[in-house]
Amino acid sequence: MAVEALNFQVAPSNKGRQSKRSLWLLPPILLLAALVVYPLVLVATESFTGGLATWREVVGSTEFRNALIRTIQISVTSTIGCLIVGTFLAAVISFVPFPGARIVSGVVDAMLSLPSFLVALSFTFLYGTAGVLGSLAGGFLTTPWAVVLAEITFYTPFVMRPLLGAMARIPRVQLDVAASLGGGPWRVLSKIVLPEVKPALVAGGSLTLLLTLNEFGIVLFLGARDTTTLPMLVHTKGIVMFDYPGACVIAVVQILLSITLYAVLRSALGGRRARLD
Amino acid sequence: MTVQLEDVTVHFGRTCALEGLNLTVAAGETVALLGPSGSGKSTALKAVAGFVRPSRGRIRIAGVDVTDVPPAKRGIGVVVQQYALFPHLRVADNVAFGLRAARRPKAEVTRRVAEMLDMVGMSTYARRFPRELSGGQQQRVAIARALAIRPPVLLLDDPLAALDAQLRADMLDELQKLRREVPDVAIVYVTHDQAEALALADRIAVMRAARLVDIAPSADLYAAPPSAFTASFLGGANLLPVEVSADEVRVAGHPLAGVRAKEGNNLLCIRPHAVRLGSGGLPARLLAAQWRGASSRLTCAIDGLPDVRVHIDVPAGGPLPEVGAQVSMVLPPEACSLVPAGTR
Amino acid sequence: MFAIVLAVLVLAPFVVVGAAAFSGSWNGVFPSDPTTSHLRDALSGDELASLTVSLQTALLGGLLAVVFGTWAALASRTASAPLVRFTDALYHLPIAVPSVVVGLGLLVAFSRPPLLLNGTKWIVVIAHLVLMVAFTYGTVAAALQRTDDAYADVAASLGASPARVLWQVRLPMLRPAIVSAASLSVALSMGEVGATIMVYPASWRTLPVSVFALTDRGQTFVAAAESLVLLAVTVVLVVTLDRLRGRAVER
């Protein structure tokens, strides 16, 4: 009886303290609710202001379908490119001794926080009609390949960062033993290094896929006619044509695409937070 | 001032980390909570400190129920495993932390910090940062910080675990000296190392799987362990299955003279150093011998009990039988006690 | 081979932008007519105004992002598990959604009552706050996960109130993480285009938007010079912030 009475006393006070602590989360949650969730909900409702007509019109347009396909094409191609280049560079930095390896990984870190449009701007000088390779590259700058190359340039460090971390954790002895058993560099890379760093590869690759899907600055600055992506279309419709409902429809599609991908990635990575910085 | 735990139970989610612990620690007494990892000993300490809240039971300090009192109002000194010295504060500021939290006058803080650092022999390190100190030095500072607020109770959570063997022995001496400096403080000392418990504690509470197994004055617990677990965990006793009939005790069919039978207790407990090789004992075979400097540890199997390994410590210097040889093992009755088999 | 790949991929863009900033024309393989007139253009009139706008936005947005990101990370330390998962998802939302969409949302939401912010600088600051808070939250939360609760426990056992534990133990120990969160968000904020281009009023044009306007008008050399200014200012800001790291040790 006495024990039960004690129990009764302990339980509510425990709960009280917990809920009082949780109260501290309220202001930051409200902030994001007001500044992110509420606007996004309005975007969704705005897309239905004309009933389903706006949806039918926008989704039915070739402009939208082309942009959707373009976005996915560019994103997938860029991600594959980043994975290949990133793995190669990370392997060299990690396993081939050369002076300045530390500086290079410092540069990689710095790249992550730079604006992507810089790369696009430099392409104007590199591949533009008047630029370094202008005469050779011809109309390269106006093709989707320019966007892909720019995205590979900009997003490769995002693949390299987790890879460098994972490769640093592979014991050197393991590689030396493999090499002493007669494995050539490619064999060591494919049989030992790659399986070890697979989680990092998946994490970096999926992050890059998400970011390239959402990329705007590069497409804006290269401004190629053929390369309208979904974010670009949101901008054109919203700001240039003042067609808010149309922009909102595309935004909703984009949100669904990105959030679905993000959710799939997070669960696929086993709840491990993909570090985004 | 005494610490009392009544039926204290702690759950982390669905796992039960501590089950119905009853324990009293008197002022000036040192009680060691001894057990393997996961035995609930650290959880018990955290419950007394107020870091975890019991799902059942009460904790009293000097008769006052503190179960619902936050750690800041309990006035208990705590030294945690990795010491948790505040890395951004110098040694003196670490020690002063509790005094400043209590808004003591500046002069008093300065005096008390000097006193405490002097007590643990760290006066010359007052201006250093924790990362500039060795493990043993960090531990002294942590103790000084905990004792600076003059707590009636001091909790030490495996304070020597992070140190290497030599330093551990030195710090054990230091802790014994410290005990005499604060004669009225009740100390709860959590450890997984039986040597530390035997060296420091007045009483030892042996814990296992979230429960208290045995509690008794250290000497009693060592001399006559009440359970098989305590017997092997505290001092690594040999445990031999025996047949108990009427008032005779037999090991592998051989009667043991002078050992009193007890109902239901069918494991014979004897310390490795108490077993002797001589004539007229149990026939056994020597399986291995390890020289350990001052003594040698022999591993034997009694004929008829091939699965039970018996350890014997013999002083170095005497002749040792060959490995594989037949030996005769004497179990002096005064060194034997019987414990219930239970689960090991 | 490696050097070539690295050079083409990583370094070339910056070298090219840097070279273009100082050249009068670029008609062959190499730039010609070295000049500093672009740089002077980039540091005068409207473009200089853009620089101060960007600085104010980045510092204000970054500061708010650090405050709320740190607050959310600290508060979710003690809250109940489902609430923490919710907060975590909420604070990752701005990263998962394209910045253009975040901008569109703000534009739709704050062009109408109850809050009419469209046309003011506040909508730009809010956009930057929202985008950066995800990074500051992530950085501080990761650092918190690495710090042992024992420090706060010990501080409490020494009689420190929760406020004292926060200000004298938790925050000082988090200082390196908070500083890197701040420099990251300032750097990202200085270069943000997607959301800004959706919401900016004519009176509050940030540096990247000006750079885009310049390229759009064909003034690519001035654009390059201005990008160089942007890079230089960002580096100075990040280095300055890094000094605040001080001695604090992150475990």
TrEMBL record, chain A:
Signal peptide: none annotated. It is a multi-pass membrane protein. It comes from the Bacteria. InterPro entries: MetI-like, MetI-like_sf. Keywords: Cell inner membrane, Cell membrane, Membrane, Transmembrane, Transmembrane helix, Transport. SUPFAM superfamilies: MetI-like. Gene3D superfamilies: MetI-like. NCBIfam families: PRK15050.1. This is 2-aminoethylphosphonate transport system permease protein.
TrEMBL record, chain B:
The keyword Transport applies. SUPFAM superfamilies: MOP-like, P-loop containing nucleoside triphosphate hydrolases. GO terms for cellular component: ATP-binding cassette (ABC) transporter complex. Its EC number is 7.6.2.9. Keywords: ATP-binding, Nucleotide-binding, Transport. The keyword Transport applies. One of its GO terms (molecular function) is ATP hydrolysis activity. It holds the Pfam family TOBE_2. Residues 3-234 form the ABC transporter domain. This is ABC-type quaternary amine transporter. It comes from Kribbella caucasensis.
Automatic annotation (TrEMBL), chain C:
The keyword Cell membrane applies. It is a multi-pass membrane protein. The keyword Nucleotide-binding does not apply. Residues 51-241 form the ABC transmembrane type-1 domain. It is found in: Cell inner membrane; Cell membrane. PROSITE patterns: ABC_TM1 (PS50928). One of its GO terms (cellular component) is plasma membrane. Keywords: Cell inner membrane, Cell membrane, Membrane, Transmembrane, Transmembrane helix, Transport. The chain crosses the membrane at residues 55-77, 89-110, 122-144, 177-200, 220-241. It comes from the Bacteria. One of its GO terms (biological process) is transmembrane transport. PANTHER family: INNER MEMBRANE ABC TRANSPORTER PERMEASE PROTEIN YDCV (PTHR43357:SF4). Belongs to the binding-protein-dependent transport system permease family. This is 2-aminoethylphosphonate transport system permease protein.
